Structure formats: C-alpha cells, structure tokens
Amino acid sequence: GSGGFRKRKHDNFPHGQRKEEKENVNPSSALMTSFKSFQLELDTRHDKYERLVKLSRDITIESKRTIFLLHRFTSAPNGEEILNESEVKLDAVRRKIKQVAQELIGEDMYQFHRAISPGLQEYVEAVSFQYFIKTRSLISVEEINKQLIFTVENREETTNMTSNSHDKQPHTWSLKVTPVDYLLGVADLTGELMRLCISSVGNGDIDTPFELSQFLRQIYDGFTFIGNTGPYEVSKKLYTLKQSLAKVENACYTLKVRGSEIPKHMLADVFSTKTELIDQEEGLS
Amino acid sequence: MSVSDMFIALQGVLTADQDIREEIRKVVQALEQTAREILTLLQGVHQGAGFQDIPKKCQKAREHFGTVRTQLESLKTKFPADQYYRFHEHWRFVLQRLVFLAAFVVFLESETLVTREAVAEILGIEADREQGFHLDIEDYLSGVLTLASELARLAVNSVTAGDYSRPLRISTFINELDSGFRLLNLKNDSLRKRYDGLKYDVKKIEEVVYDLSIRGLNKEATGGVGGEK
C-alpha cells in the first residue's frame, strides 16, 4: 500500500507495509549481523542485572528479619541465643552476597551498582546493629569488607551456581561495600538504635538510653562533619538522623527528670532487670 | 578506631572522589566544545550550497576528531581505569554526541552505518570493556539513533536543494536501521525512549519518498536505487 503512509498514525494500519519493508532488508547484511550481536550483548547484560536485583531483594529481606530478631534481644532473657541466631542469619545473607560477588567477577562493579546498592545498605544496617549490641561501638567499613572476602572452599556449592565462569574462577574474590553505601547503612542504623532506646526505656533499662544517646551524638557529629561533601542521599538522611537523635535525647531527659520520682517498689524492678542485662553481656564476652 | 576517626577517614575518601569528578568535568567541558565545533561544521550540509562540498566538510570534521582523541586521552588519565562506570554519567552525554558525529561523517562519506569498532577507532578508544576506556554499547546505539533524526532532516533538505536521489538512499538505510533496532529487547530506560522516536524519523522519510514518487521525481533521479518499487 504505497498510499498508506498518511494513515500511519493509526497503529493498526501499517502492518501490511511493514512486512514488505522487512523483506527488503537483507537479514544477513553487515548491519543486521552486528545488531544480532548487540541483541545478545544487551540481553546478557539485562539478565545479569535482573539476577542481581533479585539477590539484592533477598539480601534486603533477610537483613530486615535479622534486625527484627535483634530487637528482641533486650526484651528476651535468652540474649545469647538470639545473638547466635542472628549470626546464623547473617551468614545466610553473606552467602547471598557471595553469589553477588560471583556475578560480578570480571565486571565493573559500578555498572551494576544500582541493582545491588539497596541490599548492601540493608546488610550494613543489620551487621552494624549486631556489632553495636555486641560491642557497643561502630563497625568500620574495613571490618565489614573483611567479612565479604570469599574463597572457594566448598566445591560442590560453587559448581551449581554458575557453570560458565567456573573454570576461570580465582581462589578468592570479594565484594567491597562502597563508602557511600556504608554511610547510608549507618544512617539507617541510627533509626534502629532510636527504636532500641525507646523499647529499652519500656523495659525499665535506664543505662542503655544514655549510652545510646552518646553513641548517636557521635554519629551525628560524624555526619555533620561530612556535611555536603557526600552525595545527595547522604545529606537527605541527615534530617531523619536529627529527628532520631532528638527522640533519644528527649527520652534521656525524661529519664533524668523523672528518675527521682520512680516509686521505690518500681525501682527495685528496674534494677533487677538492669543487673540481669549486665549478666547477659558478661556471659557473651 | 573511634567513631570520629572513622568519619574523618570517610570524609577524606569523599573529598578525593570529588576532586576526581572535578577533573573529569573540566575535560568533558573541553570535549563538549569540540563536539559543538564539529556539529557546526557538519550542519553546513543542510544548506543548499553545502551539498557540493560534502567530502571537504567530512575531511575537516575528521581533522577535528584528532582533538577529540587527545582530549579523550587526557580523560583516561583522570581516574582509575577499572572504575569506568563509577564516573560514566559525566561523559555519557558527550560520548553519545561524538558517536553521532562520527556516524554522520561516515554516513556522508560512504552511506553506511559506522560499526562500533570504527567509532571507537575514530575516537581513539576501545570497543571492548576489558581493554580500558571503551564505548558502551548503549551509548553507541543512542548516538546511532540521533543520526536517524539528523538523516530525516537531511532527506527534507536534500529535496529542497534539488537532490532527489539522496532521500531514497536514506530511506533504504533507515529501514535497515529500523529492522536492526527491532531485533533488540530494550528495557524501559532512556535508550528505549529514544528508540521510540525512531518511528517518527522513518515516517518522515517515507513521506518525503512518497512526495517524490507521486511526482515521478525518483525515477528521473536514479532509476530506483533502493526505491520502494
């Protein structure tokens, strides 16, 4: 239909002519051959991206669950058990990260960074939360990365993951959490610490809130020191961080003011829970 | 390590990162300037008189690509070679534009689509990621899509300048390009958005060819090289 083009606007019309054109194009011309290879290249890239997005989502979910588990730590009497369980969960997360690292062997990590960044941030949050509960300090980015160096100890596990890259696998490979992912993860951590603070007040624990407010203040100072050197996302988190800090500081204020007003019989309760907690911590170290 | 020490270290890393970006931006600015110059040069072909000395214009444009090569050479030294995609956004736009310009020159010279390897060679970079600073496939394809809209414009202006055979050749070329792009499974990203514009270029060129055919102007020109019938 040579007169058909004017009706091209209507989507249903041009099919007849399109077919004709297609026949005019030689399917084995140089151009078509190169576009076929582009198709392959793009599909491979998109597939890898999708696999990484899926892994990242799994990492996010498992890390969130670990955080929920760790929130039970202060309220439950079996603290050590919970910590062990969280370690098991984090190991599972690290196995996922190992798969991510495997996908990225020989690739430029930043090419796929957008796919994996949310998962890594959540992992930083979980692992630093656990580290805080254990040691009452902030885990460093080096420490995190040290745990993300993988070796091929168990052969059978690696064979069924990716078969094509199997023969040229190096003996160790690693994934590095970028400074920005680390910072964003730590910023999220402060939200968890705020929740921990409020719930520990609820449990009658009057030491943890003060410890937490000091720790949060240090982190807040750190973030203000970085200020707008960092990327946009970091400065965005600063606002939430400030709110968390304010909540914790207010909780401490209330504890200080009302501390003298707590009736004697309740104080006994408060102190008994406190000593219990200290025992648990000693049991860990 | 105390919390404040950690943040001091991180701040150092971020500052270093910013310095690199600053350096990259400077070079990219120079590249954009060169790209504009080449574009101005090639824009001449749309003018009536410009059709006569296309080879000369291409020749001059190719000389300018020498500047591009040295500028890209200096861009390579501004950041670690294995972190290409970390800073990719900075030069993505200008690289796409340069691909378009190179593809335009090659089309004007030989009326073929420049290969990815050939563009890489014109720009003095690699076609393959493993070998260093390279041309990303999506950037190459984006540049080619820009060429398509430029050719739609060229088809119109050729007719105005009295060159009735060029639109027919452009039509064949664009149709082949369109079939090529239809082989690709594009994701819903910027490349896909630009590809969606290709059909309008195809349509425009078909309109020009139609106008020529109903007036019998295509036969007079070439005897139907790549014509519709």
Question: What does this protein structure show overall?
Answer:
The complex is a heterodimer of chains A (285) and B (229). Chain A is 73% helix and 2% strand. Chain A has ten helices and two strands, in the order αααααβαβαααα. Chain A has helices spanning 15-24, 30-75, 79-103, 113-135, 141-146, 155-159, 179-202, 208-226, 232-259, 264-284; strands at 149-151, 172-174. In chain A, strands 1-2 form a two-stranded antiparallel ribbon. In chain A, helix 2 packs parallel to helix 7 (179-202) and helix 3 runs antiparallel to helix 4 (113-135). Chain A is elongated, with a radius of gyration of 27 Å. The termini of chain A are far apart. With 229 residues, chain B is an all-alpha fold. Chain B has a single domain (3-215), classed as Methane Monooxygenase Hydroxylase, Chain G, domain 1 (Up-down Bundle), CATH 1.20.58.190. Helices cover 72% and strands 0% of the residues of chain B. Chain B has helices spanning 3-43, 54-76, 88-110, 116-123, 137-160, 166-182, 190-196, 198-214, 217-222. In chain B, helix 2 packs antiparallel against helix 3. The N and C termini of chain B lie far apart (78 Å). The model of chain B is unreliable at 223-229 (pLDDT under 50). Chains A and B meet through helix 1, helix 2, helix 7 and helix 8 of A and helix 1, helix 5, helix 6 and helix 8 of B. Chain B: Mg(2+) binds at residue 150. Chain B: InterPro entries: Translin, Translin_C, Translin_fam, Translin_N, Translin_sf. Chain B: This is Translin.
